[in-house]
Amino acid sequence: MAVMRYTLIDKSGTISFIAPWNTLKALVAACSRKPAPEDLSTVLEAASRYSSGLREYVFNGLAVFDEHYTTQDEASATRELNPQLERELREILGLGGTGGLTEAPQPAGESEDFIEEEEDISRIFSRVSEEEKSEITYEELLEKQRQLRGAALSRHPVLRVLDDDTRRESLEPVSIGLVIFNLPAKRIIQVQNSYGVLKRSDRGRYFENGQPTERLYFYRLPTDWSLLP
Q: In this structure, is residue 104 part of a structural domain?
């Protein structure tokens, strides 16, 4: 099935994760709730009402990611990168500035074996959308993350934005797209969305354990939220 990347910003930092297409409407519906969610835990808990298992998938994935993070000053690094992330998003959308993201140069001294390993890891999740099964669960995505133990942090499907590599990965569309949710600014940015037209008011289908149900939910995004483009 199709998956996409979701990057979430709150006052404490930025995280990014890969999840199925139906997660998009679940997150927008969560943002539509009153009072508006202001942090990662609140928005994921609300979204999990529409797509069960989302909160557990993200936080368990972050736990796997954190096992491999060795830099001590995590909090300051994350806060420092948020304004830069916003500036680059504005450049991508043509809202100010020029240019865009550029490919980072390959560090000197890295072997060809290392490069091939990185490419193989990046293909793991591009193949998710090509699987014959109709849906994939959060549990299956989490298991794929566990298989990446020892890989570069930027290759984890659930990650924290802590440095240039993870920041660059958080801005990279996967399969059908990339959508950023800036909770403090109440802004949803569709960098790339091949899933379909995202409406301010719409309905979605409840998902249980990665499978669609017969139940529908409805949402209406409040006027103080921006939906771009």
A: no
Class of residue 151 by CB neighbours under 10 A (exposed 0-12, middle 13-18, buried 19+):
middle
The count of domains in the chain is: 1
Instruction: With CA atoms as reference, report the closest residue to 15 among 142, 193, 138, 166.
Output: 166
Q: Which residue do the tokens 């043509």 mark?
A: 94
Q: Do strands 13-20 and 187-193 pair parallel, antiparallel, or not at all (unpaired)? A: unpaired
Q: How confident is the model at residue 89 (pLDDT cuts 50, 70, 90)?
A: low
- DSSP state string for 44-103: HHHHTTTBTTHHHHHHHHHHHHHHT---S-HHHHHHHHHHHHHHHHHHHTTSSSS----P
Query: Is position 89 within any domain?
Result: yes
Q: How many CB atoms lie within 10 A of CB 65?
A: 21
Torsion region of 28: left, alpha or beta (phi above 0 gives left; psi -120 to 50 gives alpha): alpha
> Model-level pTM?
0.75
Q: Each residue of 115-172: pLDDT tens digit?
A: 333 443 344 444 444 443 456 778 888 888 787 766 676 678 899 998 898 999 999 9
